[in-house]
Design goal:
Layout (H helix, E strand, L loop, with lengths): L2 H33 L3 H14 L4 H17 L4 H21 L4 H17 L1 H22 L4 H17 L5 H14 L14 H11 L2
Helix pairs in contact: 1-2, 2-3, 3-4, 3-5, 4-5, 5-6, 5-7, 6-7, 7-8, 8-9
Length: 209
């Protein structure tokens, strides 16, 4: 093999490694922004990462989560809420295709469906509530010790019980269990989901008021 060919191969390898390093740097920074509640900056970098690395589920997951949360926070502005839910689902569809059996992905899908139920309970309530129950139960079967799964299911159950005037005590206990799980749960990597503890603690505090 000639020196010229070896040099070309080496340059190609360096180019690929450099691109991967840049993508990883973007993702690391985006997750850092997300974990510090700087969602606007996080979205910009996650969107770049989706374009650069379409086979990575994490950028799509985080974007679906961010837009889904923003939708729930916009429940008093229906047009905005609808647009945010639609955007969240675009990224969620990609995450679903890449990680169909991932409990973290399932609970974000359940969150988005819950947003549609809140948006128009008469249209979406009956059908999507069954889907949401199924998603949470399946996620719990797959990852029973994942604190986000336990917390999100309990939070949804609290909301549903409150809506129907039912006792929430058993679900508040599940939130307490989730808080305990946060202390021992180890994400697969520093970029994998680790959010939820502060929200769980706030929910638990409200449970006991």
């Amino acid at each position: 093999m000639s020196t010229r060919i070896i040099t070309l191969i080496a340059l190609m390898i360096v180019g690929v490694l450099s691109a991967q390093s840049k993508e990883s740097a973007n993702l690391i920074e985006a997750v850092s922004y997300f974990n510090n509640d700087q969602h606007k900056d996080a979205k910009s970098l996650f969107e770049k990462e989706v374009e650069a690395n379409p086979e990575n589920w994490l950028p799509n997951y985080y974007l679906a989560l961010i837009y889904g949360v923003e939708a729930l926070e916009s429940r008093n502005a229906q047009d905005k809420m609808k647009s945010l839910l639609e955007t969240a689902q675009v990224y969620q569809d990609k995450a679903n295709n890449l990680q169909p059996e991932n409990a973290e992905v399932m609970i974000v899908q359940a969150m988005i469906h819950t947003g549609w139920i809140i948006y128009n309970p008469m249209v979406y309530g009956r059908d999507l509530s069954t889907v949401v129950d199924h998603l949470y139960n399946k996620a719990l079967t797959i990852a029973p010790n994942n604190p986000r799964v336990v917390f999100q299911k309990a939070s949804y159950d609290i909301g549903k019980a409150s809506y129907f005037g039912q006792d929430t005590k058993q679900y508040c206990a599940e939130v307490g269990k989730a808080i305990e799980l946060f202390s021992t749960f180890k994400p697969e990597s520093s970029l994998d989901p680790s959010w939820g503890l502060i929200l769980a603690e706030k929910t638990y505090s409200n449970c006991n008021q």
